[in-house]
C-alpha cells in the first residue's frame, strides 16, 4: 500500500500524541474527522498501524535493574532454539526476546527490582534455560534514545 502526504500528516500526529481523539488528530493533520477515521482504518487494515500499546515505565513500578543477556546456544541439538525460546517466554521478568544471525543467537532483555533480585533470577531462572553454550550480560546504565517511529 502506498501512503500519501495526508497519511503521513495523520501518522505524524498519531506518533506525537497516540492518545489523541480522532477529531483532534484530524484537526492537527488538516483533514475532516471522517477522512481521518477512514484513513486510520485503511492504515490499520494494511498493517501499517498495529493495535495501540501501553508503554510501561518499569522503573516507576520498582524495577530498577535492566540487563541485556546475549546467548549462544548449543546448535548440536536440533530443537535448541525452539526449546530455549519456549522456556524464556515463561520467565515473567523477560520483557524482550530477539533472535539474530551472527555471533549472538538470542538476546533477552530482563528486568529486576534490584541487584539481589537479579542475582536470584539469574541463578534460578536464567541459568536453568536449556541449551546455553555461552552467555554474556550487559547491564543498562542509561537509555539515550529510544525511538519506535521512522521519519515521516
User: Kindly, what is the distance between the CA atoms of the first and last residues, rounded to a whole number of angstroms?
Assistant: 15 Å
The tally of strands reads 4
Proportion of β residues? 15-25%
Count of spatially separate domains: 2
Low-confidence stretches: none
Structural class: alpha+beta
Roughly how many Å is the radius of gyration? 21 Å
Major sheet characteristics? 4 strands, antiparallel
Shape: elongated
Which fold name is given in CATH as the topology of the largest domain? Answer: Alpha-Beta Plaits
* CATH architecture annotation of the largest domain: 2-Layer Sandwich
Looking across the biggest beta sheet, what order are the strands in? Answer: 2-3-1-4
CATH class wording of the largest domain: Alpha Beta
Helix content: 25-40%
Would you kindly provide a written description of the structure presented here, covering whatever features stand out?
With 152 residues, the protein is α+β, with helices and mostly antiparallel strands. It folds into two domains: 5-45, Winged helix-like DNA-binding domain superfamily/Winged helix DNA-binding domain (Arc Repressor Mutant, subunit A, Orthogonal Bundle), CATH 1.10.10.10; 59-139, Lrp/AsnC effector binding domain/regulation of amino acid metabolism (RAM) domain (Alpha-Beta Plaits, 2-Layer Sandwich), CATH 3.30.70.920. 36% of the residues lie in helices and 20% in strands. It contains five helices and four strands, in the order αααβαββαβ. Helix 2 (22-29) packs across helix 3. The two termini are 15 Å apart.
Amino acid at each position: 500500500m502506498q501512503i500519501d502526504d495526508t497519511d503521513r500528516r495523520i501518522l505524524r500526529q498519531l506518533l506525537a500524541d497516540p492518545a489523541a481523539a480522532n477529531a483532534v488528530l484530524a484537526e492537527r493533520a488538516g483533514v475532516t474527522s471522517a477522512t481521518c477515521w477512514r484513513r486510520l482504518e485503511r492504515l490499520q487494515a494494511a498493517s501499517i498501524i498495529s493495535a495501540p500499546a501501553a508503554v510501561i515505565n518499569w522503573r516507576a513500578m520498582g524495577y530498577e535493574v535492566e540487563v541485556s543477556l546475549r546467548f549462544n546456544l548449543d546448535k548440536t541439538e536440533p530443537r535448541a532454539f525452539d526449546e530455549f525460546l519456549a522456556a524464556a517466554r515463561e520467565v515473567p521478568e523477560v520483557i524482550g526476546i530477539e533472535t539474530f544471525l551472527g555471533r549472538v543467537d538470542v538476546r533477552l532483555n530482563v528486568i529486576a527490582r534490584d541487584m539481589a533480585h537479579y542475582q536470584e533470577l539469574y541463578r534460578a531462572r536464567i541459568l536453568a534455560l536449556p541449551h546455553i553454550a555461552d552467555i554474556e550480560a550487559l547491564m543498562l546504565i542509561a537509555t539515550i534514545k529510544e525511538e519506535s517511529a521512522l521519519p515521516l
